[in-house]
Amino acid sequence: MAKVQGLPARTAALRMLDAVMRRGETLDLAERSAAKGLTPSDRALARAIAGESLRWLRDLDAMIDGATQQILPDDAKPRMVLRMMLAQWLRLDTPPHAVIATGLELLTGGPRRLAHGVFSALVKQGVTLPDAPTLPPEVAARWSERAGPIATALAALPPLDLAIKDWSQTEHWAAELGGTSLAPGHVRLARGSAVERLAGFEAGAWWVQDIAASLPARLLGAGEGRRVLDLCAAPGGKTLQLAAAGWQVTAIDKSAKRLDRLVDNLDRTGLSAEVVAADALTWEPGCTYDAILLDAPCTATGTARRHPDVLHRIHAAQIAEMAELQAAILARAAQWLTPGGTLVYATCSLEPEEGEQQAAQCALPPAPVTADELPAGLQPTAEGWVRTDPSMLPDAGGMDGFFIARFRAAG
User: Fold this and answer.
1) Strand 206-208 and strand 248-253: pairing?
2) 220-271: per-residue pLDDT in tens?
3) What whole-number distance in Å separates Cα of residue 13 and Cα of residue 16?
4) What are phi and psi of 35, to 5 degrees?
5) Does the annotation count 232 as an active-site position?
6) How many C-beta neighbours within 10 Å does residue 332 have?
């Protein structure tokens, strides 16, 4: 039998969905396993199918349930395949005949006939998705009054943000790459750019980093040769920022494998840092630091635009577990500051347990953030903290969700 064109990508996408929905894996981890051996284009397609299926999961399920009286469990293979088929048609503009040709190859017997009938009926009805994905009830409740705007923001795929090594070259790279800048050292490009092929990549003039993720390091200012500890540093964007800003950087992360990517980016950009594979809960620095940047391990719900799996994987138990870990690391890090030293705490989470509640419990004196330290359009909270979410900067393409608080040790 002739091999169906496009089937490897769909098979990988199905494996990704299964890993996320049944085993609770991250989409990134699922992709590394499921898409192994695929061409770059097939890998990108598999990720897009799985990602859009997860982003619009509840809306796709409502369509499926409205077109059949047969009960399909959430993790049943026919439902998984139908989600993928609908996502391709409604979000990736794949013609229905191509969707059917590849999708049905993933099923056999009765489930195959069921999927064919349900999909064909929905195509005939001309169903459409709503303007914004429907959030799981638990997620909508957690995000409360911000849930609606955030859901609207999740409907659009995020642009590509670059952090520029030499801030004086921001305008040059914006013009060279055809992008726009929202702050010094930042350039935003339209989605779909092949990163490795862009001008300046091989020369190490920039690295990929969402503008929200760049804010914590910005709030430490120029290093002027002083010592900074970048805790939980991988994959390394903040380490690169700090090194480029003149800090003497020690970068710590528990994962030696993830630190390999950090080292590669240091080599590419010509920047330097001491890189240490260690657990922040047991590591002893042997000195104090003028500044500490703690981008703490978190549930990463603020990255839902790129990682829609967090909408379905993250529940109260994971949030509580991360909050406990964050509090422990923050308490240790606070002891490693020199008198008058600055600590910036950050998480890419939308959950107050991982942000506002951690800041309120920190023993260090606060060093409030001011509006002139942030990109135009952003304001600190009344407490002097920074809270971003995907609905912010809507006219410019949005941003990830982050919480940031700054503290300063007594001098």
Assistant:
1) unpaired
2) 999 999 999 999 999 999 999 999 999 999 999 999 999 999 999 999 999 9
3) 5
4) -100, 10
5) no
6) 17
SS (H, E, C) the chain: CCCCCCHHHHHHHHHHHHHHHHHCCCHHHHHHHHCCCCCHHHHHHHHHHHHHHHHCHHHHHHHHHHHCCCCCCCCCHHHHHHHHHHHHHHHCCCCHHHHHHHHHHHCCHHHHHHHHHHHHHHHHHCCCCCCCCCCCHHHHHHHHHHHHHHHHHHCCCCCEEEEECCHHHHHHHHHHHCCECCCCCEEEECCCCCHHHCCCCCCCCEEECCHHHHHHHHCCCCCCCCEEEEECCCCCHHHHHHHHCCCEEEEEECCHHHHHHHHHHHHHHCCCCEEEECCCCCCCCCCCEEEEEEECCCCCHHHCCCCCCHHHHCCHHHHHHHHHHHHHHHHHHHHHEEEEEEEEEEECCCCHHHCHHHHHHCCCCECCCCHHHCCCCCCCCCCCCEEECCCCCHHHCCCCCEEEEEEECCC
Average pLDDT, integer, range 95-109: 95
The pLDDT-based confidence of 1 (bands split at 50, 70, 90) is very low
- In the set 232, 287, 298, 348, the catalytic residue is 348
Report which residue type is found at 330: L
| Amino acid symbol at 133 | P
